[in-house]
Amino acid sequence: MTHCLSQTNGMNRTSVLLAFLLLTCFSLKSQVDSLTVVDVQKLIASMCEKDQDMRKSLGKIERGDTVQYAEQRLNISQMDEMNNVMLQRVIKDHGYPAASDFGMVTTHKFWILIMHQDKDLELQQSVLQWMRSMLFEGEVIGRDLAYLEDRVAVNKGECQVYGTQFRYDSEQNKNVPFDICEVKKLKKLRKKMGLMPFDTQASQENRR
């Protein structure tokens, strides 16, 4: 009985949170075309903070607690959908947030949100094309571009270039990289984009 009551209370808290986020989303959606640069910076910062908090809380759930894990995954999925609405509107009315206009911090946080838009490959690809064109203008971070390159490739079912994307392998009981295109060139390619050595990242992926 105690467990059921606790679970119900948790679901109620979740419902309240999602309702609040939904109301905030629609409120902001109606105002976004009148936002200043500072307003857009604050909006992206707020969205990114919620995104990171929700995902960190997922990482704290024990693998055996399938009910709580599934509930939090659903919460994150719904948050990503609301974020998609806002991201699309920001891009439509203000363009992609280049560092020279919005600051590199905002550009980086925008990238974090785009990385989590796996259900909208078209959006990820459009941002990827923009980032490619802006890299040598100093408008985006090389590491961020490399991660999105790999994310889009994996979402398209292709091999990744930089080896940044990992998945959990239940047989090995650890995180392993998705297929890498040219392993022999990996060290050179990663260094060019400012990425840490592959072995270092692989070790970090399995300390999470």
Main features:
disordered N terminus; mainly alpha; two-stranded antiparallel ribbon; 2 domains
List the helices and strands and how they pair.
Elements: H1 2-31, H2 37-59, H3 66-94, H4 99-102, H5 104-115, H6 121-134, H7 142-155, E1 166-169, E2 174-177, H8 186-192, H9 198-205
Antiparallel strand pairs: 1-2
Helix pairs in contact: 1-3, 2-3, 2-5, 5-7, 6-7
Helix content: 55-70%
Mean pLDDT: 88
What is the number of helices? 9
* Rg calc: 19 Å
Main beta sheet strand tally, sense and closure: 2 strands, antiparallel
Give the terminus-to-terminus CA distance: 33 Å
Instruction: Tell how many strands the DSSP assignment holds.
Output: 2
Number of domains: 2
The shape, in one word, is globular
Structural class: mainly alpha
> What fraction of residues sit in β-strands?
under 5%
Record the strand order, biggest sheet.
Answer: 1-2
Helices and strands, in order, run as HHHHHHHEEHH
Residue runs with pLDDT of under 50 for 5 or more positions? 1-11
